[in-house]
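Open question from group meeting: does this chain pack into something compact, or does most of it stay loose? Before anyone orders reagents, we agreed to write out a predicted structure and look at it together. Recording both the input and the output here so the notebook holds the full record.
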Amino acid sequence: FRPMPSRPSPTPSRLALLALAALSLLGCNSPPKGPSLIEITPEINATRLADTFVITPGDTIALNSSKDSDLAQELTVLPDGTASFSAIGTLRIGGFTPEQVRQQVQQAYREARATDFPEALTVTIVATAPRSVTVMGEVNTPGPIPFGLDQRMTLVEAIGKAGSFSASSAWLSNTLLVRWDPATQSQRHWVIDARPEHWIGREPLLLQSFDVIYIPNTNIYRAGIWVDNFIRRLLPFPFFFPAPA
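C-alpha cells returned:
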C-alpha cells in the first residue's frame, strides 16, 4: 500500500496569479455597454405617458354618464388593483389608463345591460395615491423617490435624489430602466450608458410613475467580492498587510 501524495497547499504567489486570472476573465466576458443617455433619450421619452396617469391602488376614480345618472359613482382602487362597480361587479383596473378603464366598463355594461353609451361614459381620476419611481443597485440611498407636485423627474435627478451613485462600484454604462406599458400590459426595458459625461444632452430623459432604475455593480467589484470570498481568506495576512515590526 502506497499512500497518496499530499497535495501542496496553494502558495501566495499561486493564489495571486489565480486572482489576476479571475479578474482578466471577468473583464473579457463583460457585456457591452448600452447606448448613451443622449442617444437613447428621444426613444424613451416617446413612450412616456406625459399627460395621462396610470391608475394605481389608492386612487379614487369617478364614473359618470350623461345618459344615465344612476351610473355615477366614485370608487377607490383596492390594494390588489380592483374596484367594484355597480351592476357589473369587480374589474381589475390597476395598471390601466382612464381611457382603457372606460372601454372596459363600457364593454361590461354593454354585456350586462345590453346597452351602450357611446361618447357618454367618462372615467376620471379624482384623487391620486402618491407616485414615485424606484432606484435600486449601486446608489447610496436606494428606494422609492416620490414625484413633486409637477409630476416631473429626470433620470439624472432620480439618481441624485437616491444619494448619487457609488463611485467605487456603480456600473453606470449598464444602467437598466424598466417601464410599465399599459397599452401592452407588459414591461419595457432599456440598457443605458448613463455615465456623467452623457448627462449634458439637450433633451433630459423624463421618468414616469412606477419606473424602476437599476444600477448594477461593476465586474471589477464583483471580482473583488469573489477574490475576497475565495482567495483572500486563504492567504496569510502578511500577503495583504505588512507584518508588524
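Observations to bring back to the group:
The longest strand covers residues 121-127.
The radius of gyration is 27 Å.
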